[in-house]
Design brief:
mainly alpha; 76 residues; 68% helix; 2 helices; single chain; 0% strand
């Protein structure tokens, strides 16, 4: 990839997505049961993992758009 810097949109979606994935894995491993009764359900971890995947997938759009914009600039 020819991008020198990641777009801000990729950071704003990718970092929370990775945090959701980590939190979901921790919840599925059973580390949330002492925090709140709702977090001991297996569905809570699955919700966090699905949200993390959606956020990381959405972070790809600013990357693709920035790459297309960089290719569209005239070589001067």
């Amino acid at each position: 990839m020819a991008l020198k810097r990641l777009p801000a949109g990729a950071w704003l979606l990718g970092v929370p997505g990775l945090l959701c994935l980590v939190a979901g894995a921790l919840l599925l491993a059973g580390f949330g049961s002492s925090l709140h009764p709702l977090l001991q359900e297996s569905g809570a971890g699955l919700v966090m993992i699905v949200s993390g995947v959606a956020l990381v997938g959405s972070a790809a759009f600013p990357l693709v758009l920035a790459e297309l914009a960089a290719k569209d600039k005239p070589q001067g």
